[in-house]
Amino acid sequence: MTARSAGADDGSDEALALLREAPPGSPEHDTPSAGGGAPEREPEQPAARKGPRHRAMAWTDARAVAARAGRAAPVRSHRVPLESALGEILTEPLTALTDLPSFDTSAMDGWAVAGPGPWRVQDGGVLAGHAAVGTLADGEAVRIATGARIPSGATAVIRSEHARSDEARTHLQADRVVLHGQDIRPRGQECRSGDVLLPATALVTPAVLGLAAAAGYDELSTVPRPRVEILVLGDELLTRGLPHDGLIRDALGPMLGFWLRALGAEVIGTRRLKDDEGALLAAVTGSSADLVITTGGTASGPVDHVHPVLHKAGAELLVDGVAVRPGHPMLLARIEVAKYLVGLPGNPLAAVSGLLTLAEPLLRELAQRATPMTYTAPLRNEVQGHPHDTRLVPVVHRAERVVPLHYNGPAMLRGVATADGLAVVPPGGARAGAEVEILDLPWTQAGSGGGCFT
Ligand SMILES: Nc1nc2c(c(=O)[nH]1)N[C@H]1C(S)=C(S)[C@@H](COP(=O)(O)OP(=O)(O)OC[C@H]3O[C@@H](n4cnc5c(N)ncnc54)[C@H](O)[C@@H]3O)O[C@H]1N2
Ligand code: MOO
User: Fold this and answer.
1) Reported ipTM
2) Residue 357 and residue 293 in contact, taking contact as beta carbons nearer than 8 Å
3) Which of 300, 325, 389 for a ligand 2 pocket mutation test, highest count of atoms within 8 Å of Cβ?
4) Topology of the domain comprising 52-73+225-366
5) Which ligand is nearest to the CA of 249?
6) Is the CB of 104 under 6 A from ligand 1?
7) Which residue out of 347, 353, 392, 413 has the highest number of ligand 1 atoms within 8 Å of its CB and is therefore the one to mutate?
8) Which ranges of the sequence are coiled-coil (predicted)?
9) Residue in 371, 373, 372, 379 with CA at minimum distance from that of residue 424
10) Mind giving me the DSSP string for 107-175?
């Protein structure tokens, strides 16, 4: 867990201060949710609008469906150069291709000696990377460097600081008792050729890359990162400059690619599409990605084309709405075998909610990464819940507790930008002190998702 020190200069203190200081009567104070930013109030749903509510799946069920969809995809493997394997999962055990060390090695700079001293010092010396020198006979010594091959016949290495040679540097005397084999790393001390160093299913971390290289590998067999294409939808979106004339900046395009990479995806592209059904259908059906992510257009407005396009594409809706706030219109569809689409709602925090609810478990299973340990933390402040739905609320860790952040409205990124994670607040809410599950953000120290190697 990240226990950031109180007062960390990360911008979250302003959000926290606002939470503490909102005066009575202010909108902040009046929000029905402590922790700030209420779930936007919904009017009682008339019968005619009850359809979506019936379809909405419980938050935990939706995550389970997404994970199952990922597990159902065929298992894949590729051989890649070491540097490309970072963050992927091994599909074969890492079996040593050599003994390590692969020869008897000096562990120190000093002298290799044979038998009991004093010793006659041979001319020259042995350096790391040099071929073997001749055999040492009993009573002989030769200068040696750390990492150099031990000459045959040598029985020990004496560190430079533990022996003295005479003026002419021809004779050597030890300052202390010399033990047989001291400071010699024997061949195969770490492993023998053929030993299994890591099982298939191990995550390739930087340390694994180092071990694989030491053990003789140039390439590794791993599960390829799922290939993801992002389609950002909306006529109202600008990619530069200030909002004007009802147009706003696209906040999702700049964020999602990096976030998806941190979740283990290979992002093959981000495209911006106008609100045009034909263009969306062509982009979805023509995409070569394993997972298409769309943003916006999930609801039932006049230019919300995701549902009609999925229908036309013959896709199977696996999740069509989730009982979670924000983000309830999120969806998951199977377009064809092993090709999925996650529809993220357009409101930016709702999109983050969809990313963590549906894309994260799907990508994790497609990449065959281990399920991270879930953990809970006590809330410092009460958080009001939605009557029926789970809430995901940005929080920071402070002194063994999590503090709900204020700017947590569906259209706001200000809270999550300073957050360590999202608290999973059950329907009905949670009191101060209640333990709630925390979804770490992939870049926080507490993140247990196996590392975010981008
Ligand atoms: N009658 C109803 N209307 C809406 C409901 C509902 O239940 N009944 N749900 C609301 C909720 S909740 C959400 S979330 C949104 C989801 O809508 P869409 O997924 O169709 O998204 P859009 O309508 O395209 O956009 C919503 C909102 O987000 C802004 N947006 C979109 N893309 C971006 C982007 N890349 N960067 C920044 N902002 C973006 C867009 O301008 C809208 O303001 O539906 C509600 N409506
Ligand atoms: O809150 Mo909507 O929940 O998905 O913006």
Assistant:
1) 0.98
2) no
3) 325
4) Molybdenum Cofactor Biosythetic Enzyme; Chain A (3.40.980)
5) 1
6) no
7) 347
8) none
9) 379
10) SSSEEEE-SSSSEEEEEEEE-TTPPP-PPPPTTEEEEE-TTPBPPTT--EEEEGGGEEE-TTS-EEEES
* Cβ of 329 below 6 Å from ligand 1: yes
- Determine whether domain 12-43+374-440 maps to CATH 3.20.20.80: no
Ligand 1 pocket, residue 343 CB under 6 Å: no
Ligand 2 pocket test: which of 53, 59, 353 has the largest number of ligand atoms within 8 Å of its C-beta?
A: 353
The residue whose C-alpha atom lies closest to atom 4 belonging to ligand 2 is 327
> For 78-98+194-222, CATH number?
3.90.105.10
Least distant ligand from the CA of 40: 2
- The CATH number of 105-123+137-185 is 2.170.190.11
pLDDT digits (tens, 9 = 90+) for 10-62: 444 444 433 443 333 333 332 333 334 444 444 433 333 344 445 799 999 99
Structure tokens at 176: 């202390």
Instruction: Give the pTM.
Output: 0.85
Atom of ligand 1 at shortest distance to CA of 345? 19
In order along the chain (454 residues), what is the average pLDDT of each group of 10 residues?
A: 36 43 34 40 38 75 98 95 96 98 96 96 90 89 96 96 88 96 97 98 97 98 98 97 97 97 96 96 98 95 94 97 97 96 98 98 96 94 96 97 96 96 97 97 63 50
Q: Report the b/e string of 359-394 with b at 16+ CB within 10 A.
A: bbbbbbbbbbbeeeeeeebebbbbbbbbeebbbbbb
111: which residues sit within 8 A by CB, 6+ positions away? Answer: 119, 121, 141, 142, 143, 144, 157, 158, 160, 163, 172
For residue 296, report the distance from its CA to the centre of ligand 1, in Å.
6
Q: In this structure, are residues 192 and 99 in contact, taking their beta carbons and an 8 Å threshold?
A: yes
pLDDT given at position 18: 39
- The answer to whether the CB of 313 falls within 8 A of the CB of 284 is yes
Domain coordinates of the chain in residue numbers? Answer: 12-43+374-440, 52-73+225-366, 78-98+194-222, 105-123+137-185
C-alpha 91/C-alpha 75 separation (Å) is: 10
Report pLDDT for 445: 60
Q: Which residue CA neighbors atom 5 of ligand 1 most closely?
A: 299
Contact 421, 414 (CB under 8 A): no
Q: Which residues line ligand 2 (CB under 6 A)?
A: 325-329, 345, 347, 350, 410
Q: Could you identify the atom of ligand 1 that is nearest to the CA of residue 350?
A: 14
User: Facing residues of 110 across strands?
Assistant: 144, 159
Distance of CA 429 to the CA centre of its chain: 29
